[in-house]
Amino acid sequence: MRFVSGPGREGRRRAPGPADESGIRSYERGSYASAEESFKDALESAQAADPESRETERALYWLASAYYANGKYAEAERSMDRAREIGEVRLSSEFADLDLMLDRQAEVYVERGRYLEAEAVLLQSLRIKQKKYGQRSEEVADTLNGLGVIYYHADDFDHAESAFAQALRIRREKLGPDHASTATIQNNLGALYNKMGKHEKAYNLLKRALTTRKKIDGGKGPEVAATLDNIGNCFLAIGDLDQAQGYYQNALQADPDYWRASHNLATVDYRRAELDLGEGDAVRAASYLNRAINGYRGVVEKAPNPESFTDLAAALLKLVQIKKNPETKADLVKLAEQCYERAIDLAPRDHRAYVHLAFLRFEQGKKRQALELFDRAIAVAPHESMLYYFKAHVLEEQGREGEALMTYEACLEIAPCQDACRAGRLSLLKKRAELTPEPGES
After folding, report:
1. pLDDT the model gives residue 20
2. For the chain, does the N or the C end have fewer beta carbons within 10 angstroms?
3. Which domains does the chain have, with CATH numbers?
C-alpha cells in the first residue's frame, strides 16, 4: 500500500520546508541517517533561539521525516506531535508547505495505527490543496490517495474505494493511463479490492499496474515489488500458495529490501503448516512453522513492524501445539508474549495486538489481565464493536454477569445487528432468568 507522493517515491516536490540545507540534500539523496543527524543539529539551534518558533516547528517536521525514513516510528510520532503543538495556533497558511508537512504527519500516524488522527490531518491537507491547486489537481489526487490508504487500514471499504477512484480519475486525466503515479493508485485500489474479496477485479487492476511499472522501472525497484507482492496476496487469499510464493519471490528479486514480500513468504509457510496440521502431519507442520518463524524473525530484525511481530507470535503459539516438552512450550509462549508486547510498543494506537495478547492471557487463566488489555484496546478503538463482545465474554466467565450484560449492550449500541453479541446477550439473559426464583419460591 503506497501512501501520498513524497521524497524518494516519485514525488514532484520536496518534503516539508527548509530547516537545514545539508540535511535536505542528504534526505533527497536517500541518506537518511546523515539527514537525521543534520536535522538534530538544526533543531538544537532553532530551540536555542526560540523553542516555540516556526523554525523549531520546521526542524521538528524535518526530523520526524528522517526518523520515519529510518524506521524510528515512535521518535517520528513524538516529533510530529511536538511540531503540531507548536504550530496549533498558526495552522492557517503561515507555511507555504504546510500541506506537505501534514501529509508526512498523516503517514507517521498511519504507521502507528492512529487512523482517526491521520484522517483529520489529511482532510486538513486536502482542504488546503483544493484551495491552493484546484479541485482536480495532482496534489489533490495525492491526498485522496493518502485518505484511501487510511480508510484501507481502518477497513472502511466504501470510503477507501471512493477516495482511490477519485484519485485515479484525476491521475488518468492529468497524466494518462501509463504514468507511474497512475500505476501507484491502481496498485492501491487493487490491494483494496483483494481485501474486499473481489480477487479477480483486484488481479486485473494489479496486472495493468505491473505492466506500466515494468515499462517505467524495467522490472526493478520498490514500486514493482509492491505490485508483485499485492498480486501474490490475491493468490494467497484464494489459497493458491504456490502462485503466491512465486509472486513474493519475484517481488524480492525486484527489490531485495522489500520486507513485506519476505513477511508474506513466511506467511505462506505458516499456511502450509496449518494445512499439514489439519491432515495430521505434525512433523512436516513443525518444519514449515520453523521456517515461518525464521522468516518473520528475519523481517523484524531488518524492519521492526507490528504486523510481523504479531504473526511471529502466532507462529510460535502454533508450534506450542506440536511440541511436547513443557519447558519448550513455556519458552515459546514467553517469546510470543514478548512479540505481542513489542507490537504494542511499535503501534500503541492499534488495538489488534492488545486483542491477541488478551486472548493469550485468557487462555492462560489470567482473566484480570485479559480484561485490562481489552480495556486498553477499547480506549484506542472505542468504535470496534467486537472488543466489547470479547470483554463481555471474559466478564461472564468471571461471574460478573451484570457488568457483562452492560458490556453486551454497549456493543449493540455501536453495532445493533452484531449477531454474536446479540446471541451472547440473549444467552446471558436466559441464564439469569433460570437462576432467578419465581415469586413465592423458597
Report:
1. 65
2. C
3. 176-257 (1.25.40.10), 259-348 (1.20.58), 350-442 (1.25.40.10)
Q: How far apart, in Å, are the Cα atoms of 212 and each of 138, 206, 217, 224? A: 19, 10, 9, 9
User: Which residue type sits at 255?
Assistant: D
Q: What is the DSSP letter of 350?
A: -
State the cell numbers at 344.
504494542
The DSSP code for 90 is G
d(CA 381, CA 395): 19
Instruction: Give, in order, the Cα–Cα distances in Å from 403 to each of 40, 47, 344, 390, 391.
Output: 50, 50, 27, 13, 10
Counting other chains too, the contacts that 53-60 makes at CB distance below 8 Å and 24 or more residues apart are: 53/86, 54/86, 54/87, 54/90, 54/94, 54/95, 55/19, 56/86, 57/83, 57/86, 57/87, 58/16, 58/17, 58/18, 58/19, 58/95, 59/19, 59/20, 60/86
Which cell numbers hold the place of 373?
A: 488489555
Q: Using DSSP, state whether 400 is helix, strand or coil.
A: coil
DSSP per-residue string spanning 252-315: HHH-TT-HHHHHHHHHHHHHHHHHHHHTT-HHHHHHHHHHHHHHHHHHHHHS--HHHHHHHHHH
C-alpha 350: how far from its chain's center? 8
* Nearest alpha carbon to residue 109 among 164, 59, 146, 139: 146
pLDDT lower than 50: segments of the chain: 4-17, 89, 91-95, 442
User: What is the per-residue pLDDT for 8?
Assistant: 32
In the chain, % helix, strand, coil (3-state, to 5) comes to 75, 0, 25
Nearest Cα residue to 191 out of 160, 222, 159: 160
Cα separation of 208 and 373, whole Å?
A: 43
What angle do the packed helices 98-111 and 73-87 form, to 10 degrees? 140
Measured at the CA of 47, the angle between CA 46 and CA 48, to 5 degrees, comes to: 90
Which residue has cell 495505527? 113
Element (H, E) at 371: helix 367-380
Q: Residue with C-alpha cell 543534520?
A: 38
